[in-house]
Amino acid sequence: MLSEGWRRPYFARIVRFGVTGLMATGIHVVVAVTLIIRLGVFPYLANPIAFLIATGFSYATNTLWSFSSRMNRRTLLRYACVATLGCLATMAVAAAAEIARLDYRVGVLLVIVLVTPTTFALHSLWTYRSAC
Predict the structure, then answer these.
(1) Tell me: the pLDDT tens digits for 60-99?
(2) How far apart are the first and last CA of the chain?
């Protein structure tokens, strides 16, 4: 059983990670929509640009706030690896849901339920190992 002293900071880290994810999602949407609607950029170009901007925000915010760590080359490279893995896992889960002929909303829910906790665990255990 986890001691109270350990659970409280861990729970706060989870909440901060979730808030950061929601903000990064908002940034992605605003950047993508702005590029597509205001600047006429094709969606297949706008979304990767929005992804990179949102991921940069997410790295900085998670490093400094969620995990109370320092931004450096090691955490950046590890964060990029986990983000790439998360992207690939998201594509795989969404594809599996589509193959199973599930409603796209079920696919989105599966991504949230499966990929988000996995990326949090990877960041906790690997990306920011010394800070946890």
Answers:
(1) 999 999 999 999 999 999 999 999 999 999 999 999 999 9
(2) 18
